[in-house]
Amino acid sequence: MATPLFHATLTVQTQSHDYPIVITENSNASNPKNIVSNTAENTTNNSAENGAKKSSMASQIAPYITGRQVLIVTNETVAPLYLKALQEELEAQFTVKVCVLPDGEQYKNQTSINQIYDALMAEHFNRDVTLIALGGGVVGDMTGFAAASFMRGVNFIQIPTTLLSQVDSSVGGKTGINHPQGKNMIGAFWQPQMVLADMSTLKTLPARELSAGLAEVIKYALIMDAEFLTWLEHNLPAMMALDLAVLGEAVKRCCQYKADIVAQDERESGVRALLNFGHTFGHVIETHEGYGNWLHGEAVAAGMVQAAELSQKLGWLTSADVARIKRILLLANLPITPPAIDVQTALGLMGHDKKVKHGQIRLILLKSLGEAVLTNEFDAGLLTEVLSQHHS
To answer: Which CATH architecture has domain 206-392?
Structure first.
């Protein structure tokens, strides 16, 4: 008897509209010759209970396409894997054009956004167009920003193909590009019409990229759910071995955490900022070292260790807690030590962080494992100590 495929559907509630996150295992994602039509019902249960059928990406996103015009935005790495099947099936119903961008964080900039605009303008696409982001977080962020700004806002759909984008960046409507002086400094909040997270795309993900995604998964456990941290400690080996059912469960949990937070605080005026645990330190690493040299998840991993060390200095975490955080990050093949960065340089880069308020740096720290807080109530000397710790 065949093993049932993983399938779950969650709903994100936002001010503009509610939309589904479909988490599925589609073994035919890159094989258009063996597509089986999908009649799956919305469900929040695992596939072991509902026996979801194999289905193409196109058949699952088609109901969320508005109008007849479609622009698929992808990159040079993902296009050879999944573009042909998606494009050919959508062309049976829609006018479909493609924009293929270079791959990498270093291309998350205005030049790439203009490439998307150029494709839209060349085809005389109008406000009825739907943009489809087929790729990881960089493709998703840029496609979303293009959708938010083209003709002052058009429809878009996320098909995240990396673990990091499936558990984090594809959900919640944060879109944008980098600036040479700071990461994600130019952008907009613009919600997708739906998110399709196909677990089978993780089979083509390089091990380093999988580990980078695991950093964001571990982040959710550290800020929201100590029990999930224990679950991860037990299940991380299976996730790294690409057990799609276990990965699907992790993605489902992370997306539910994020959906709950976005429903409370869509534009990050409060609790949503907690999702940036490790990111203030991590963005310093990415900006200083050059976008793309450290993967986002790698920088966040080292940043979470720095945030945990500051939390320990404040008396909130024990040395055993910090050691436990380092242990699970190492198990995921993630760095726990940042590169050497001059303290004043690091503080200057932190000054560009979007959480800075009234000129004061605010950080997400841990009161305990599973409980995070946004605060500026820490001794500046302790922050300097943490930043100095790994400087040589």
So the answer is: Up-down Bundle (1.20)
